[in-house]
Amino acid sequence: MWIGVVSLFPEMFEAITRHGVTGRAVERGLLELAFWNPRDYATDRHRTVDDRPYGGGPGMLMKVDTLRGALAEARAGAESAGHRPSVIYLSPQGRRLDQAGARELATRDGLIVVAGRYEGIDERVVEADIDEEWSIGDYVLSGGELPAMVMIDALAREVPGVLGHSDSASEDSFADGLLDCPHYTRPEVIDGHRVPDVLLSGNHELIRRWRLKQSLGRTWLRRPDMLESRTLDREQRKLLDEFIDEHAA
Ligand SMILES: Nc1nonc1C(=O)NCC1CCCCC1
Fold this sequence. Notes:
Elements: E1 2-6, H1 14-17, H2 20-27, E2 32-36, E3 50-51, E4 61-62, H3 64-80, E5 86-96, H4 99-105, E6 111-114, H5 123-129, E7 132-135, H6 145-156, H7 167-171, E8 189-190, E9 193-194, H8 204-222, H9 224-228, H10 234-248
Helix pairs in contact: 4-6, 8-10
This protein binds 4-amino-N-(cyclohexylmethyl)-1,2,5-oxadiazole-3-carboxamide.
4-amino-N-(cyclohexylmethyl)-1,2,5-oxadiazole-3-carboxamide binds next to strand 5.
């Protein structure tokens, strides 16, 4: 998947282009990131990229001409790469990103992601140049780079071939609308706490059922809202009822 990034701090994105699952996806050509820095479009001696807000008040905005210069080149880059991207802006005012949203974004014919800085961007640029605003949560960060990386990481996992064996995506808890089950690895005992026997049994069907029961139970305990919008099949209903009975006991 092709993603153009407009950012004043492109080097921050090494966190996803040089490490882990996303780094390997870039190496394998499954994920392609290209960067355009508004500072490269500054024409003054000080390479100014911010500007004062009309109406006064604290803080600055991203300078319009340098931002739009970078955006125009990103669009040209997308076109020459044969893509017709959606242009995304990250801000707390956007649509909340969730697994379904990541899955949806992964189907687009490329993305251009605009990472804001200072107090944001001119509203006329939002209206003219931005297709969609997205948010990673209700808190204010210092820039759009970390939200952009969160979004790119989440959607990259939905790109076919990115994950080692494809079922790890389907097993991801949010992938099937549940919280993840507990996980265990060596040693078998930590401070007197043993690994649940079922996980040592080698019985894959019992293990599958135990993990599903734990996911359902955890979701019931911690995020009951996630169960409200979900129809449980017969097995899931039985396992959750068992969990609830055991929890009440
Ligand atoms: N929360 C968020 N979700 O997506 N982005 C978020 C954010 O807090 N972004 C900060 C940016 C917003 C534009 C101006 C500079 C600071």
